Amino acid sequence: MSNAPSRAATVEFRHVTKRYDERAKGNPAAVNDLSIEVPAGRICVLVGPSGCGKTTSLKMVNRLIEPTSGQIVIDGVDASTREVTELRRGIGYVIQQVGLFPHQTIGQNVATVPRLLGWPKARQRERAEELLATVGLEPARYRDRYPSQLSGGERQRVGVARALAADPPIMLMDEPFGAVDPIVRERLQNEFLRLQEELAKTILFVTHDIDEAIKMGDLVAVMQVGGTLAQFGTPAEILASPASEFVARFVGADRGLKRLSLSRVRDLPLQPLITARPGEDCALARQRALADPFPYLLLVDDRSRPIGWIRDADIPATGTLTEALAVPMSPLLNRRTTLKDALSMLLDADVQAGIVVDRAGAVVGLVTVDMIADRMRDTAGENRFGPLEPDAQEDDAAPTGEGPDGPVDTLAPPEPVEA
Amino acid sequence: MGPDQGRLTMELIGEVVAWFTDPANWTGTNGVPNRLLEHLRLSGASMLVATLIALPAGLAIGHSGRGGLLAVAVANLGRAVPSYALLLVFLPFFGLGDAAAFPALVLLAIPPILVNAYTGLRGVDRDLVEAGRGMGMTELQLLLRVELPAAAPVVVAGLRLAAVAVVATATLAALVAGGGLGRYIADGFGLRREDRLIAGAILVALLALVVERAFTFAERRTLLPGDQRRPSTADLAPPPLQSGLR
């Protein structure tokens, strides 16, 4: 089996319930009738407040915890029918505290499962080195060190490498990036997402952080105390139309903004703009600029890279355009910038429009605060659970009586550009 | 301490030095090498049997987490009953000599080994155990590859405490006509030969120190490269199981 090519597996929870004290009648369930299906190759994030049963659900997949009733079906096979150690060796497992064996070198730690599977020594070593490189740790530097000699972020990477060692089709990750600082966490998240693009494992990922859930998940299962599933869907679905007030409150009052982090500049129809090059005739340029409603002309170099803005009204009647006429530019965005970041950059620079450039730095269009605001309005969804009751607010950040459109209006004053 | 007393002390020291330098005390049945060998044989046999009983039991209890109360009860019992009393209890059953001392020493050695094995394993980071189990280790693999290496300093400390206690207490064997270094003390006492008595006490103390150092060295060997733990943490395992002679 160790030579089997990696392929993802589907993981299905079928009416899974877990009660810790089975003798007590009517005792609260840790997990209550959970039914979800995670398609092969997807990341499903289980998210919820502490005590919602998300970790219990995860541990039932590799049978560290046995369900009280219901089945967990992996690629059509009931997990409870499989030999437990064999089942676990085929499922990668990463926990928050990593749990690296302190008396073993990093190389030995990574090769744990291959060793259990009885791979030849040379192949264990080879695989460990390959995986260290995969997670961005120079094998020659790290192989022979001990866990205590590594930083928290490095240990997390080793934890991921160890879980991947036998190329399991499924990975279980229990708050894998919870114990590192926010900067390292963000980097690990990004690296992991990039890695997942190649690996395409089926991943169950537990977190209590809704932002992490939205970022990491192809699918998100929001759970609530009592172990019930509050909502299961894509991050966009959950943000756009929370299924209950609990979900709405859990994803937060700023879910419109969070929704923006799911869209990128490339998802917007960019606004065209008038460009001109230094040396062009002023009269002609002015004529073209005035024909366009946008009150600015963008001066670009001979490779279409932006130089600066010239207000239509400031274009001289005669002569040629010069760089001296141009004023500093608004922020440069690219197509991959998330709308949340784009909005943040525009607000930081106190401007209404950002220039979108391609990889070579050439201008492709404009993104305005209005466009982003429109997008936010479109995606605000039905808002069945939109404005929260005042007493439901965790803090007083959002004033009452203001719908999701409220903040948007303040971002889009009637004034046009003010670059 | 008057001047008279001081003179007597100096005299005694001279006599003890003379005892050690007398070649007659280094040969034959009653010579130091033979008594030392007897002492080590009795201590070693007691330790071996105690380890064979207590170590697997302690590891099993520590791994499963079941029977912890039993371990504590055994330890407390071991601490409460003086070895000297045990010796006399066993006398009618095993007769005079090392045979009566042997079971008393085994019982003396069991509690520290058992308790340290148990607490050592319980002290292993639960995340390590969970990670190991989650990756598909069998329970035996978990114990041998994860828990025991991680708990080794504490487990070895238990062996050290037991060994030192046994070496010191094996002296009592002489009281029931056994061999070992205790002979010098018992005989010195009976014959009012203070030089012999003190020489015996010195030998026992030295042996205990050597054993203690040897195990401390072994404990250090079980620490990991870059390990933050110090050997002294091993002594955090349950309170004083140190004393031998009571």
Task: Characterise the protein shown here.
The complex is a heterodimer of chains A (419) and B (246). With 419 residues, chain A is an alpha/beta fold. Chain A has helices at 54-61, 84-89, 106-110, 112-116, 121-134, 139-142, 152-164, 182-199, 210-216, 235-240, 245-251, 255-260, 282-291, 339-349, 369-379, 405-411, and strands spanning 11-18, 31-38, 43-47, 69-74, 77-78, 91-95, 170-174, 202-207, 219-224, 228-233, 275-276, 296-300, 306-311, 332-334, 353-357, 363-368. Chain A has two domains: 11-259, 3-Layer(aba) Sandwich (Rossmann fold); 260-419, CBS-domain. Helix content of chain A is 33%, strand content 20%. In chain A, strand 15 (353-357) and strand 16 (363-368) form a beta hairpin. In chain A, helix 5 (121-134) crosses helix 7. Chain A is elongated, with a radius of gyration of 27 Å. With 246 residues, chain B is mainly α. Chain B has a single domain (34-223, 230-236), classed as MetI-like (MetI-like fold), CATH 1.10.3720. Chain B is 73% helix and 0% strand. Residues 228-246 of chain B have low confidence and may be disordered. The chains are: A alpha/beta (419), B mainly alpha (246). At the A-B interface, helix 2 and helix 4 of A face helix 6 and helix 7 of B.
Low-confidence stretches of chain A: 1-5, 381-419
Structural class of chain B: mainly alpha
Number of separate domains of chain B: 1
Instruction: Please state the average pLDDT score of chain A.
Output: 84
Largest sheet of chain B, described in full? Answer: none
CATH class label of chain B: Mainly Alpha
Number of strands of chain A: 16
- Which class best fits the helix and strand makeup of chain A? alpha/beta
How much strand content do the residues of chain A show?
15-25%
Helical coverage of chain B, percent range: over 70%
CATH superfamily grouping of the largest domain in chain A: P-loop containing nucleotide triphosphate hydrolases
**Quaternary structure annotation:** heterodimer
Instruction: Find the count of extended strands of chain B (DSSP E, 2+ residues).
Output: 0
Summarize the main sheet of chain A.
6 strands, mixed
Radius of gyration of chain A: 27 Å
* Chain pair forming the biggest interface: A-B, 28 and 23 residues
Based on CA atoms alone, the radius of gyration of chain B comes out at 21 Å
Note the overall shape of chain B.
elongated
Could you spell the SSE succession of chain B in H and E letters?
A: HHHHHHHHH
